[in-house]
Fold:
Amino acid sequence: MPYVNIQVTREGTSSGESKTTADQKARLIKGVSDLLLEVLGKPQSSTFVVIEEVEMENWGVGGLPVADYRKQLAAEKAK
Amino acid sequence: MPYVNIQVTREGTSSGESKTTADQKARLIKGVSDLLLEVLGKPQSSTFVVIEEVEMENWGVGGLPVADYRKQLAAEKAK
Amino acid sequence: MPYVNIQVTREGTSSGESKTTADQKARLIKGVSDLLLEVLGKPQSSTFVVIEEVEMENWGVGGLPVADYRKQLAAEKAK
Amino acid sequence: MPYVNIQVTREGTSSGESKTTADQKARLIKGVSDLLLEVLGKPQSSTFVVIEEVEMENWGVGGLPVADYRKQLAAEKAK
Amino acid sequence: MPYVNIQVTREGTSSGESKTTADQKARLIKGVSDLLLEVLGKPQSSTFVVIEEVEMENWGVGGLPVADYRKQLAAEKAK
Amino acid sequence: MPYVNIQVTREGTSSGESKTTADQKARLIKGVSDLLLEVLGKPQSSTFVVIEEVEMENWGVGGLPVADYRKQLAAEKAK
Structure:
């Protein structure tokens, strides 16, 4: 009876998209459910997958909102 | 000092509604707080209840987004 | 397809117990499942309830570990 | 590799604002990351902070939605 | 920068084991990280996976602790 | 009424310790509560902080359990 919670930043990762698409979500759900069946033998009907999309300004890493963190990394690389 | 997190799909469950109503949320909050007082003696003022409504396409079960899963179940029953 | 997460401090609340008993947990599970059926019409077979017991020193309130916070409250009342 | 999840009600706490501002979020992210570095020596690049803003009607305390709970407290104080 | 939380009951799923093995956990971690790279292009170094094993008596489904629920299902099938 | 959940690997970070100490936990609780008061004006009595210590083999990053990931990083640096 697994429960899986996936948190990602709300942003597009395929061209022309500004957020995770329904198709990408369906692939995440299928992939995680397949994995739990394969590794632990959990029947798919008892696996819940919940995807949470988090606004960019609500996600922090490196002590900064993620957009600022990426700019900082890019600037360091450019040195 | 309990903390309770309730995750449900964002959809209407009473007629004419497309989401959980404020009244339904208030009943969930009261019900959970009553339960923790009754079973564990926790004072209601120190029980937090947080309700999260999850978009249908973000909730998976049976390896599928929940809407597809329900269609599949319905199709199987109709056989 | 609700998922409910209940977090409580790991401590006994009935006489002679040092933690939540299996019977108390079963009552919490039943109570929450009944509530979601009653308020939102969710079938019980698709409601997951996960109880997490948190060590006292891992739970903070009022800027203090919960045991210290209770002592502080008791001392204030005794004034 | 810490992960920190901060849940707050979605409401303004500085004058003229109806929600937590981007600047306040950046200060929360920095503050938590500094704290984990200081107390546990965790490098900031491996600390994730996720802020979740919860609608007022989705947050319960004292057996009531938080707005009703505050009204009740205010009424008691006014007695 | 995804964060994935996997909750499973604490029980063995391979012969002779009473809990999820370190090898099974490693496969879950790899599988989820591969999936997020493949579907969303997320670099593996910024994907956190946290596995939580939940005591059987702390997991409820169908209004019952999971062990009781399984017995009930088995009894129904045996009819 | 904030709720803050802090997840860290279960390991010692000060000399001679194999886990986070009670004193370190108290400092995390105080630090987070101070921060929420300072940034959002939240009274400390209504801030909950819950610390979860996660077994090393249950935490993954870079597609690996965290211990293996650190070894890999160290090996790369040593090249």
Summary: The CA atoms of residues 64 and 72 of chain A lie 9 Å apart. The beta strands of chain A are 3-9, 48-54, 59-61, 64-65. The helical segments of chain A are 22-40, 66-78. The two ends of chain A are 50 Å apart (CA to CA).
